[in-house]
């Protein structure tokens, strides 16, 4: 009888042990296969600061030395390597965003990039070949997004989206981050041809259109928005050469004071507008991303961040303080690129180097430039971006 009781007890304990091991193994397997991030994708809208190849999918291909640092060839990015949007995708555990206009080799399972170099918020009044501005302004990018979303829904309903297809599930639109990084071309084109007073009268229109776009994306299902402000264009080598200013209008850091002041006015109104809109978007996170504060420090104190040159372009022509000639731009056969872009803040006089983009991204990831606070590390198990 005791032998039978002991045998039964042993069976019970063995059964408990097996169940316990199954629970542990299941939890381990579950933790290794489940998503480590609340965000399953990204959708980006913008200009050359975040274009991953859209412009050069529609127009003649980009030429060397663009892309030389990371991709080892031109890939449609206005830098020697990765952009902020690339580093952000990397940190979220997502692949680089494919341009919406890229018909071959694109993968949209985790979002799409609608940004286009030379794009504006307000529709351009002349063609690209006259104005230098892209026809794919923000309103067009929004229509492309709506078309993309509708087409994904149609294909899903027709059961034409299968495992392995390069399209997302329709529920991704409410589980993604929407990034908006645009306005620089509106700003500089108006400043160059109309002056500061004309630009000031134009600023509310730019911001109003960005605000309207956010509201429309919210109606389309978006719930998390990161809206980037403008950098200190008074410190960008290209604009310092191209846009007229008095010699007395330059500060101790070599930046144009009046141009930076009007950027400050723009950013202030943008933040105020987003603050007002935030209250009307129920259940959404609308974040003002102050990249300006980080970039200004890079231009003013480059050596603090490991750079040697701030207001001098790595890739350009002419040497001197800025190494920028608007008639011989980076990519021109007469232009040349430095061998050490990691020592420069500016790549081609208008855009940042990969090294500068990485530093800005770090301030995004640690949340120090978010208003209001939005701790990404709580929403995602962030991946390193140092490789």
From TrEMBL:
**What InterPro entries does the record point to?**
GDSL (IPR001087), SGNH_hydro_sf (IPR036514), SGNH_plant_lipase-like (IPR035669)
Domain of life of the native organism: Eukaryota
GO MF term set: hydrolase activity, acting on ester bonds
**Which keywords has UniProt assigned to this entry?**
Glycoprotein, Hydrolase, Membrane, Signal, Transmembrane, Transmembrane helix
SUPFAM superfamilies per record: SGNH hydrolase
User: Where does the chain cross the membrane?
Assistant: 12-30
Record-linked Pfam families = Lipase_GDSL
Query: Mind telling me which CDD domains this protein's record contains?
Result: SGNH_plant_lipase_like
Query: Record's PANTHER family?
Result: GDSL-LIKE LIPASE_ACYLHYDROLASE, ZINC FINGER FYVE DOMAIN CONTAINING PROTEIN
Which family does the entry's similarity section mention? Answer: Belongs to the 'GDSL' lipolytic enzyme family.
Q: What name goes with this protein?
A: Uncharacterized protein
Tell me what organism the protein belongs to. Answer: Crotalaria pallida
């Amino acid at each position: 009888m005791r032998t039978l009781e002991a045998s039964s007890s042993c069976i019970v304990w063995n059964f408990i042990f097996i169940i316990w091991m199954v629970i542990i193994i299941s939890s381990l397997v579950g933790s290794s296969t489940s998503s480590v991030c609340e965000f399953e994708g990204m959708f980006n809208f913008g200009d050359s600061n975040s274009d991953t190849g859209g412009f050069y999918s529609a127009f003649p291909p980009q030429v060397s030395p663009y892309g030389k640092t990371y991709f080892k060839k031109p890939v449609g990015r206005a830098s020697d390597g990765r952009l902020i949007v690339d580093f952000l995708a990397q940190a979220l555990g997502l692949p680089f965003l494919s341009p919406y206009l890229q018909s071959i080799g694109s993968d949209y399972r985790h979002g799409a990039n609608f940004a286009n170099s030379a794009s504006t918020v307000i529709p351009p009044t002349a063609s690209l070949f006259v104005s230098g501005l892209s026809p794919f302004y923000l309103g067009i990018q929004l229509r492309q997004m709506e078309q993309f979303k509708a087409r994904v829904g149609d294909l899903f309903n027709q059961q034409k989206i299968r495992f392995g297809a390069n399209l997302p599930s329709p529920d991704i639109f409410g589980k993604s981050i929407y990034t908006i990084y645009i306005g620089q071309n509106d700003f500089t084109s108006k400043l160059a041809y109309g002056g500061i007073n004309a630009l000031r009268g134009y600023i509310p229109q730019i911001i109003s259109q960005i605000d309207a776009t956010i509201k429309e994306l919210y109606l389309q299902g978006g719930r998390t928005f990161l809206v980037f402000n403008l950098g200190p264009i008074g410190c960008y080598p290209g604009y310092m050469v191209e846009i007229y200013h008095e010699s007395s209008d330059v500060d101790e850091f070599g930046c144009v004071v009046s141009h930076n002041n009007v950027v400050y006015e723009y950013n202030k109104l943008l933040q105020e507008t987003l603050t007002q809109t935030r209250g009307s978007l129920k259940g959404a996170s609308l974040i003002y991303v102050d990249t300006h504060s980080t970039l200004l420090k890079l231009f003013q104190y480059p050596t603090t961040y490991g750079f040697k040159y701030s207001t001098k372009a790595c890739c350009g022509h002419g040497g001197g303080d800025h190494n920028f000639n608007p008639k011989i731009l980076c990519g021109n056969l007469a232009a040349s690129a430095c061998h050490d872009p990691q020592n420069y803040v500016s790549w081609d006089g208008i855009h940042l180097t990969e090294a500068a983009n990485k530093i800005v991204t770090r301030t995004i990831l640690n949340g120090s430039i978010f208003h209001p606070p939005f701790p990404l590390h709580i929403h995602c198990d962030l991946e390193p971006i140092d490789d």
